[in-house]
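Chapter review: from sequence to fold.
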Amino acid sequence: MIFVWSVSPATLAPVGIPAWVWFTVAAVAGVAGFALLATDRAQRTARNRERRRWAALRGWQFEETDHVLPTRWESGAIAYYGTGVAKDVVAGSTFTADGRRQVYVLDHETGGKVNSVLVGVRCRRPVNVVVELWLPSVPFQRDQMPDLLGPVGSRYAFVSELPAARKLITPDLVDAAEEIGADVTVVWLENDWVMAAAPPNSSPARLERLLRDLGELADVVDPFDADPDTDTGGEVHRPQFGRKP
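The token string follows.
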């Protein structure tokens, strides 16, 4: 009798992946990560130089990092993304139809990533209500959202107090907000500031236009007062890096 030993065709011998394959995969991933990091750093350096030159041309101050400045505001993009850190900060003042106003421009960084460029124009006196004007395409919902007032032009208004906001939101305010542009996710009024969140890497030319538009909005909510007893005379507020007023 002859015995024949056979291997079942359903049984597969284990196949090992050579170590060099894993090494190659790790090396490719490392090179890709390094390339992304180098690209991000190059973009960051170029943006820093561009922002610094722009500040110098305008005679404004420049600061690379400010941890305190974002704590001036609590609404709008700050509430949505978190307080974060201000990077490549430009501070100065500019003229509007109703006089000179203080301005800030900064990269708003949270979690090591710039999510937007915040642009602010300061009023002479605070408004008594917070108004956030969001594009409808933005998922603006968060844990503690202000009350929904409704559509204001092409944006949706969320406010801290409905009666006060209804008095503040005039046709002139709507027209001024409409001029700001669809690339700005949110415009908001908070205390004595008119703020906006522009896309990262916005050029100085775009930021100049946005400053003009915000200046017009500031003129609407904080008009010039001809009464000499109440007029501030267009006082220039000197920027205070690293300090909260």
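Two observations follow directly from the output. Strands lie at 61-66, 85-96, 99-110, 113-122, 131-134, 147-152, 155-159, 186-190, 193-198. The first strand starts at residue 61 and ends at 66.
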